[in-house]
Structure formats: structure tokens, C-alpha cells
Amino acid sequence: MKIMEKEILYQLAVPFFSELLKDENFEKQLLLRFEQKLKATFGEFFFEETLKKLVIFLKGIKEQNNLKALQEIISIHIQRNANIFIFLNELDLFSETIIEFVFSNYSREKVNKILPAVFYLKRLIEELIYEPVEKEPKEIINAELLTNSREVIEESLKEIYRWLEPLFVALVVPNTLGVFKVIAGVGEKIEEFARLSLPKTSYSFAGRLPIPTCYREEKIRILPFKDPGILGPFVEIWNKCGIESAVLYPVIFTSYKIGVLVVTFPTSLKFPEDFYYRAAKFAENLAKKIIAAYKKNQETEFYCLLKSAQEKSLKVVVSLLEKKDHYTAFHSQLVTRYAVYLGEKLGVDKEGIEYLRTGGIFHDVGKVGIRDMILLKPGSLTGEEWLVMRLHPEYGYQVVKEMDVAMEVREIVRYHHERYDG
Q1: In angstroms, rounded to a whole number, what is the distance separating the alpha carbons of residues 260 and 218?
Q2: 54 contacts 31 by C-beta, under 8 angstroms
Q3: CA-CA to 22 of 20 to 30 Å: which in 7, 198, 301, 420?
Q4: Which residues contact 171 (CB under 8 A, 6 or more apart)?
Q5: Residue 361 to residues 180, 343, 406: CA-CA distances in angstroms?
Q6: pLDDT tens digits, one per residue of 153-178
Q7: Which listed CATH number (1.10.260.40, 3.40.30.10, 1.10.240.10, 1.10.3210.10) goes with 325-415?
Q8: Distance (Å, whole) CA 143 – CA 216
Q9: What is the distance between the alpha carbons of residues 397 and 391, in angstroms, rounded to a whole number?
Q10: What is the pTM of this model?
């Protein structure tokens, strides 16, 4: 559609609705009816999130900036956070809600003005959704990256299984070689499905197999009956597992691409209209939980790597110090040995022993801040020189504090020259 045509639709619909929405009671009643319709049609599944998105959208209509601003709202608040299939279902339902509402609350004359605006707005939104845009490449979350998230995935799949009561439900994700693997699943025959599916996935991207196609095209695949022409080599798996029908959902969220949610049934089915919406919502919710768990695991792994790198950096500093001052090297080894030995005899737990060991290695690291003429002086130190030397615990504390070392180790470094009696 040309820009001019979209602009015409915008002018026919948005200013009119903007005027209507200035009546707070109109918006309140509309949202209430939409909520009731959502619950009646699709049940109590994620309707709060849908309402939040609608409020954002209505705010954009009220502000009535321009066509580009409206598209930005749709892009940011709807397309990036939801499957387009889900949004179009909600758009149809919202349009019906407006029509029913105006018929029951306004005169025929008013209705005749509102109805065309409803259709213009719906058409405009659909055009904006399908307008070709340059897509950002998605980050691929392969099977290897989900090893630590299986518990979260299984809990979500159990929720889907309880509601749908299928033969089984599974999440299938490609590994780094592009071979599709069952990451987790719930229900009868799931173990057999996981075992049988692996040898066949080497066909993955070569043909028009349903699971790889769903993954590649990011579109829902509906398989109401067993069709060898569509299943290809997978028909053997369908036979052995007793699958007669299935629905496949791409599991994607914002800039992440995860895999395919496979929901199977033991009989050929004609799926009810609300089934796709509800199951798509479950797929979207599953994706959100997976990404949340994935990010948490990433942060934990990053912290461990960072901590390891910091400790290595400290050891490099200590090593340089020891090469400069051989007394410090021998002394640190002895302090560490005695501290650990005493700690074990006193019944200090494993974590405490580790603090003692690390503190012993690093306790004199602050000597890097002491001038060589004092640190390496062959004879006795003067009173002033002793004052400088006594600063090394504080210097050491400042070094380990910047390296995010455990508080207990920092305290050992800072107070290792304090007298027991204070």
C-alpha cells in the first residue's frame, strides 16, 4: 500500500477515535468489555498483558501525533513482544468489542459515523503490521545453551500439558550443528519421541519437514492429520509414537530465536478457533521464561569468569612482587600453610578455609605500593620508613577491593598486622 493511502486511512480513523477517547468513561467501559470478551473467548490466560498493550495503543491514538508515531507504537509495544498471529486475533476481538459497544450505547446516526472509522483503523493497523521492515537478525539460542534451563522449561511444559491434555508436549531446539534435539517434554511417549527424533534430524533444513520449516519460517504449523507428504521421514516417528495430529509453534521472543513447541494428539482433530490463540500465548510465555533463565545463567557464568580473571590478575601481581622480593614469596607460602593448618584444627568450614587460603596468598599484595628503596633495603628501616612500610595492608586492601574479592579476604588483607588484643 502506498504511503498516501495509509495517510488517508490514518486521517479517516485516528482523529475520530482520538476525539472519542477524550471521554474517559468511553475508554473505561471499552476496556472493561474487552476484558470480559477476552475471558469469555479465550479463558483467563495472560489477559492482563493484552490489556496493558491495548492501553499503550489507545494512548498513542489519543496523542494523535502522526502516522509514523503510530507505527512506532505498534512496532515497539506489540510486534516485538508478541506473535503477530496473537495480535491479529486480539485486533479482531477488539474490533468486535467496539462495534458491540457502540451499537448498545449510541444512536443510529452516531453508529453510522463510528463504524467506518473502526474498519479504517483496523485496516490501517493490519497494513502497518505487514509493512515490510528490515528485520534485525535474531540471536540463536541453541540446545547447548539451554542445558541449565531444563527445569524451568519442564515446569512450563507441565502447565501447557495440564491445560491441553495432549499425547505429549515437547520443546525441540537445534544444536550447534543444526540437528534438532528434544530439550524437554511431558506426557506419554515423550521418551520414545526424543529417542526416535534424533537420528532423523540430520534431514533438518534440506526439505519441507514440519519442525524445521516452523523454526525457519517462524510460523505456526497445523497438522490436523497424519500426512506422509508433509512429514517425510518423520512419518516413521509419528507412527511409532501414535501421533495422529499436532500443532507446532515457533518459540521466539524479541531478538531471540529458540526452537519449536510441539503439541501432539493421538487422534485426528479439528482444532477449535481459540486453541491456536491460547497455545500461542503459552509458547510466548515459555519463550519469556526461557530467556529470563538463560540471561540469569549467562550473568552467573559471566560473574564466575570475571571472578576467575580477577583472581588470576591478582596472582600475576603477587608473582611480580615475589620475583622482586624473594622474602615475600617464601613468607606468603608459609603464612598460607600455617593459616590453613590452624583453620582446619579449629574446625573452620570449607568456605572459611578457602578465605584463609586466598587471604594468605594475597595478604602482602599491598607491598607493590611500597618504594623499592624501602621494600628491598638490606639493612634496618628508619622510623619514617617503618611508617611507610606499615601502609602496605591498606594498600593491599584497596587493591583487592577493586578486584571484587570476597569481603572476608579483604578483611584478612587489611588487618593481617593488627594485634589480637587490638
Answers
A1: 9
A2: yes
A3: 7
A4: 153, 157, 182, 183, 184, 185, 251, 258, 259, 260, 261, 262, 286
A5: 48, 15, 14
A6: 888 888 888 887 889 999 999 887 77
A7: 1.10.3210.10
A8: 16
A9: 10
A10: 0.53
